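ok posting inputs for the MU-OXO-diiron job
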Amino acid sequence: MLDANVAKLINEQVNKELYSAYLYLDIANYYTEEGLDGFANWYNIQAQEERDHALLFVKYLQNNGMKVTLEAIAKPDKTLDSIMAALNVGLEHEQYVTSLIHTIYDAAYSIKDFRTMQFLDWFVKEQGEEEKNAEDLIKKYELFGQDSKGLYMLDNELGARTYSAPSLTL
Ligand code: FEO
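and the output
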């Protein structure tokens, strides 16, 4: 059995990850409307990864004999009114998710819940990668996305991203 507070935070994280998937689907839809199918592909894959994250938290709760309670997923309400604005929404959201993971880690650490800390290690690393990816996208757009030829090539590059299942299995 997990500590009640740690379990509550992980259960809330299921919802946050599903919201992340919803937000990235919203961003993907924005780019599709803008005719940037490569950017849309990148964020659609991101949405799939967020759903994977949610399911990993579900599985962890279940593996530890805890009940999972699904709550309503909030409507994505970020303003997506330019290519750069949507990229910044992605980065700020990842920074927020990192803070949530750290909060759960902190709760587990404070009660010496080593099993949960070990489980969360993968997410700590993953968040580092996701923040870097979001920062790289912004840098690339700043460098190459300002003229139509560069934007076309960047869109093609992002269109080549393919989905792969998470390296963590439970
Ligand atoms: Fe599941 Fe992008 O954090």
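notes: Residues 11 and 68 are 6 Å apart (CA to CA). The pocket of MU-OXO-diiron is lined by residues 17, 20, 50, 53, 94, 97, 130 (CB under 6 Å).
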